[in-house]
Structure formats: structure tokens, C-alpha cells
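Sample entry (370 residues):
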Amino acid sequence: MLNRILSNDPPRNRILAALLIALVVALALEPFLLPGVKALNVAAKVLVFIVLVASFDLLLGYTGIVSFAHTMFFGIGAYGVAIASTRMGAGWGAIFTGLAFALALSFVLALAIGLFSLRVRAIFFSMITLAFAAAFQTLASQLSDVTGGEDGLTFKMPEVLSPGWQLTEEPLLGVSLDGRLVCYYLLFVVAVVLFLALLRIVNSPFGRVLQAIRENEFRAEAIGYRVVVYRTISSILSALVATFAGAMLAIWLRYNGPDTTLAFEVMLDVLLIVVIGGMGTVYGAAIGAGLFVVAQSYLQDLLKLASDAASGFGWLSALLSPDRWLLWLGVLFVLSVYYFPTGVVGRLRSRRGSRADPAPPVALVAEEVE
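Predicted structure, serialized as C-alpha cells:
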């Protein structure tokens, strides 16, 4: 039964399985394990980035497409909910309307990029997607009447998702059952559904064709598959899931602005998470997002403790200063790439004791054609 839910793609490594189970349990019980605003915000950000990174990995890891426009679709989802909620007021109708328009716009833009740009090779396609992303960010910043400009948009959510709403007056296990908790579990359910949907896509015959294109585009074309069509469909699916991720973030923050979802720093974070978790593995998005977001959120606190402990050593205390957290985050990234060149998931799956990997995608696709 569990194998069916995981689309016949189990972790294939005991350590990886344990990490995934620990991550799911931690996210499911986080409000009760670590009560507090910061911990809940970190967990919600992990959920959003799991969906966003998994959608990007469908492009990069499974299809071999390097796109810098992914945060554009992330921003479209967030702006869709933000603009609709600002104009229509707090309500589920505003959320669904904004999401519907955002998905439609993402579909059109992804189709346009796919049809006009996917015939362009390598770096030229990446530059085109970067131009699209930069143009959309500039547009969002300048259309202040619609998007709020640089200040962004602050809006309200339905009452049941608002912190002021209370399910019961009595707390459960010390945790208040309020609208913030309902909003978190809404994000949790959506993230799980989208994650399992992407896992099903990459393990379907369609997903095997994408992997065949990634490994040998010319051979995939030779055995009868229209590469441009498959890459365009992959781009559209990836864009739609990224739009959902943007809507999730907007619902949680009740705010959206250009720097929140459209900044190039967000794209860099997504790239780092893909590399850390492992390209071409949906599980890598979950592991990578968990590790990166937690490190990014708590590294300063850990460095402060280490700096205070080393206060007797001036040079060491200065080196461990919380102000240098970006330096240490970079060091951790370099070490992770050095010791896990194929990502955490790739390294664990290659360990002795893992189940044998399936046949190469090109071979599987060729067998289906025969």
C-alpha cells in the first residue's frame, strides 16, 4: 500500500527512509513539538520550499532544463492571491479566484516560453528565461496600482485562517487551536498532495521519457518522441506547481512583494537546495529544503551560542560572530557538495545496501517503443 502511495519509488535506503519519516513526523507535529511563532514560520517555509524545489527539479533534474524564470511563476501565484484578496476582500472566493487567474497566466507564459524558447540550446535558453524573470519583476515593481509596487500588498485571509479565530478556548497540549494552526495544516496537506503528485509524474511513462531526454536527447528523438513537446509539457507542469507554492506562501504571510517571491536570491536558494538534496530525485527536494531552511533560520542562533562560549578566545569568538552567518552557510554548502557530490539522496542511494536502481530511462523508453 505504501509502495503505491510512493508511486513504486521507495527511498531504497534505510537511512534515507528514516530521514524522510523523521521530516514528515516533524512537520506534522511541529506546532506541538516546538511551540512558538518562529518555529512555526520555519516549518511553513519548509513546506513551501519543498513544493517549489520539487517543481523546479522536474525541470532541471528530470528534463535537463536550466531555467531562471521559475520564481516568476512563484511570484504569479503569490500575487494572484494577494491581488484578489485585496480587491475582493477576505474570503475563500478571493483565494480560489486569484489562484485560478494565476494558474491561467502561468500556463500561458510557460507555454509561450516553451514554444518560443525550448528550441534554443543550453545557455541561450537560460538567458531568455532570465530576461523573462527580470521583466516580470520590473513590471511588478512599477505597477503600483495593481501590485503595490515596492511596498507590496498586505491583505486579510478568511476568518478561519486568521490568528484571532479560536477553535476552542482551552489549549491542546499547551498549543492554542487558532486560525494560524489551521492555516499551517492547510499548507501541510497541500504540500503532501503536490509532492505525491510530482512523485507520480516522474515515475510514470511520461516521467521516464523526460529522463530519457535528459540523458540522450537525440536518441529520444530518434525513437519517436517529440522532444520539444515533452519539454514544453514539463515546463507547464513545473510552472503550475510553482504557482501553487507561491499561493501557499501568500496565504501564510498574508503579504507579498517583489522581494518576497520574485527576488533572484529566491532562485539562488532553490538552486542550492536542489544541489544539496540531489538533482533528479523528488525526495531530494524534501531533504534539501528541510536542511537548508533550518540552517538558514537557526544558524545565527547557533553561532551566537558558539561565540559566547568562545568569548575567552578573541579571534575565535569574532570568527563565530552571528554577523558572519552567510560565510558559515557558504562553508556548509561547499562541504555538502564536496562530501555529497550527487546530493544527500544520491549519495545515500548509492551506498551498499540500497536496492538496485532501475534500468536507465532511455532503455526503458526504448523497450516500450519496441
